[in-house]
Design goal:
The protein is α/β, with parallel strands linked by helices. The chain is built from 13 helices and 8 strands. The protein has an 8-stranded mixed sheet with strand order 3-2-1-4-5-6-7-8, with helices on both faces. Helix 3 (82-89) runs parallel beside helix 4 (113-120) and helix 7 packs antiparallel against helix 8. The radius of gyration is 19 Å and the shape is globular.
Length: 322
């Protein structure tokens, strides 16, 4: 099937960056948003100063309030907003490939993004895009590599090729579940690593936590049906490392504020919303997840990051492969 016309739902920073990347790849792109001011600015001035300033969008990017007839759709709204967006725009996704880009698990239902899509638009075919990437880098044309996972190898490769440009590289993969889980759970660990940094506990402590986060993430993903191989790639170790070490990461910045004892403010951090869902899943599956437990305690205000690290350091010694 042709893959020339792309609809990107969500005119925030990430949606705008993906629209620009798709245009750089030669696609015709419609960015679907809610704010009439943003839509007008994109169409008349080729910019989105509210969400992605200092970036001039290509003429191939236009904006609309409704989903046009497209060859495939990219859903680029926050995880907790996906259900509403699917209810609103689901008609435009029927029987089409839908690339899911939100990294989070839904509150209440504990569902992954692809499960929410299957519930609301069952005829859509899900693909998951994840990996170490920031909107500002993608939009500015800085080299970025991510994973695109889907159930049909040939079609996944075709969509990856349709979105690939000179600075945006997509690696096709078949472990959709593993890629999706890794993208959601790594945000929780980013909050923890930020808190260690904010509390001034040192680079050694942060590196140790990052390594143990990778072990815990692998344990969780494999138990839930994903592949351990996925965790060694871009969607696993690559994304985990970026989110747990860079101040460009909202989750990391949120953790830094918590570690300093400051109020993190109103900035969206998916890890904060995913943490209790991740704990519920781990408890349901009886998976040992001390770091996820610790992040939930921290977010609840029941303890300090220093006390959490001290507790982790006092856990019984064991062999590292466990």
């Amino acid at each position: 099937m042709p893959l020339e016309r792309v609809a990107v739902i969500g005119a925030g920073a990430w949606g705008t960056a993906l629209a620009q990347a798709a245009a750089l790849a030669g696609r015709q792109v419609t960015l679907v948003g809610r704010d009439p001011t943003v839509i007008t600015e994109i169409n008349e001035w080729h910019g989105n100063s509210v969400h992605l300033p200092c970036v001039t969008l290509l003429p191939a990017v236009t904006a609309s309030a409704v989903v046009p007839d497209a060859d495939f759709v990219i859903l680029a709204v926050p995880a907790q907003a996906s259900r509403d967006a699917l209810h609103q725009h689901g008609a435009g996704m029927r029987s089409k490939p839908v690339v899911l880009t939100a990294k989070g698990l839904e509150h209440g239902s504990l569902k992954r993004q692809s499960e929410v899509l299957a519930e609301i638009v069952p005829s859509a075919t899900p693909y998951v895009l994840s990996g170490p990437s920031f909107a500002a880098d993608v939009a500015a044309g800085r080299p970025t590599a991510v994973t695109l996972a889907g159930d049909d190898a040939e079609q996944t490769s075709a969509i990856a090729a349709a979105l690939a440009g000179p600075t945006f590289r997509l690696y096709a993969a078949d472990d959709r579940l593993g890629v999706e889980l890794a993208g959601a759970l790594k945000n929780v660990y980013a909050v923890a690593c930020g808190a260690v940094e904010g509390a001034g506990l040192g680079a050694s402590a942060r590196s140790a936590l990052l390594a143990r986060a990778f072990a815990e993430l692998t344990r969780l993903v494999v138990r839930m049906g994903g592949s351990a191989h996925t965790l060694t790639g871009l969607a696993g170790l690559g994304d985990l490392t970026l989110s747990c070490t860079s101040t460009q990461s909202r989750n990391y910045r949120y953790g830094v504020s918590l570690g300093r004892g400051a109020h993190p403010g109103s900035e969206l951090a998916e890890g904060v919303l995913t943490a209790p869902v991740a704990k519920a899943l781990a408890d349901e599956l009886r998976i040992d997840a001390p770091l996820i437990d610790a992040v939930n305690l921290l977010l609840e205000g029941n303890t300090s990051i220093a006390d959490i690290v001290a507790g982790l350091m006092s856990r019984p010694l064991k062999r590292e492969e466990n």
